[in-house]
Amino acid sequence: MRILVRTSKLAIWARRLALFAAALILISAGLHFFGQITADVFEISLVIGTICAAAAFLIGIAAYVRLWFTGDRGWGPASVGFVLGLVCLVPAGMVLALSEIYPSTADVTTALVDPPQLLDARPNDPDIDSETVLASFPNLITRAYQIPPEELFSLGQSLARANGWEILAATPPTQTSTGQLNALRHSLLGFENEIAFRVSPNPIGALIDLRAASLNPVYHDLGDNGRAIEAFLLALDDRVSTYIQNNMAQTVPEEPPVPETDLPAGQELDAQ
User: Fold this and answer.
1) Do 34 and 86 touch, CB atoms closer than 8 A?
2) pLDDT score for 263
3) What is the DSSP string of 101-121?
4) Does residue 170 contact residue 158 with C-beta atoms inside 8 Å?
5) Which residues touch 104 (CB under 8 Å, ≥6 apart)?
6) How confident is the model at residue 249, as a pLDDT?
7) What is the pTM (predicted TM-score) of this model?
8) How many CB atoms are closer than 10 A to CB 267?
9) End-to-end alpha-carbon separation of the chain, Å?
10) Which of 19, 70, 87, 214 makes the best surface tag, with the fewest CB within 10 Å?
11) How many CA atoms lie within 13 A of 227 on its CB side?
12) Are 90 and 113 in contact (CB under 8 A)?
């Protein structure tokens, strides 16, 4: 008597859903990174891909149980569904983790009373607790440097270019007027954010304030803007320190050696 060994349909569906989820997430991420789809379409694609990945993961577990008891074929497809589905759930897990670790910084600034003006960004009305943001990003405060405003603006502009930001507008400051720079920043997944920094003259040098906002309304940016401008300010601290050290080394004159003939007679006798 010949025993018919069948391939588990659960295993087949687990593999199908996992492959669909992986393709959907990878393709939508690539299209969004290159600006071929909008952020709304990308987010919807991620949600659909995550649901399919979760279904593939659960169906893969169910397929394992059925294969164990029935002896059917399908361990390979069930494993593909289980493992690939779990891998496709990693982005969703990271989103949940970052949303718990960081507050939303969809529109964040170091100047709460008078933030730098934006050109293109249209974020949601900010409903952000400044104390919560400072607890997560303690470096997001107004900086005061003992260097001329023009030099501070130049250092900030060169740092923005080094970060790969697209300069939208730049108005240099003077000793009596304020200057501002607006730039467009692309995140790793292709989300666009506008960064603005303002340099103002100060009695001891210059002040700089920053603002970062998502170009389009988002519910939660996972702290991306906060991390971006905090890293910018820390890098600017290093550049300003280097600038001050270099200029101090150039301006401090060397003391000329004292000729021996200028020494008093008593000191010459003591030296002998």
Assistant:
1) no
2) 47
3) HS---SEEES-SSSPPPPSS-
4) no
5) 128, 219, 220, 221, 222, 223
6) 66
7) 0.79
8) 11
9) 122
10) 70
11) 11
12) no
Distance CA 226, CA 138 (A): 10
pLDDT along the chain (272 residues), means of 10: 71 96 94 85 93 96 92 92 96 92 91 90 70 90 94 96 95 94 88 94 93 86 92 96 85 55 48 41
Residues 6+ apart with CB under 8 A from 208: 142, 143, 145, 152, 156, 197, 198, 199, 200, 236
What six digits make up the tokens of 130? 């400044």
| pLDDT (0 to 100) of residue 157 | 97
DSSP class of residue 3?
Answer: P
Q: Do the Cβ atoms of 118 and 111 come closer than 8 Å?
A: no
Query: Which of helix, strand or coil describes residue 34?
Result: coil
Distance CA(199)–CA(176), nearest Å, equals: 11
Chain center to CA of 117: 21
Structure tokens belonging to residue 62: 């169910």
User: Which candidate, 48, 59, 2, 57, places its Cα nearest to that of 21?
Assistant: 48
Q: How many residues does the chain have?
A: 272
Answer yes or no: are the C-beta atoms of 43 and 92 closer than 8 Å: no
Residue type, 220: H
Pair 78, 63: CB distance under 8 Å: yes
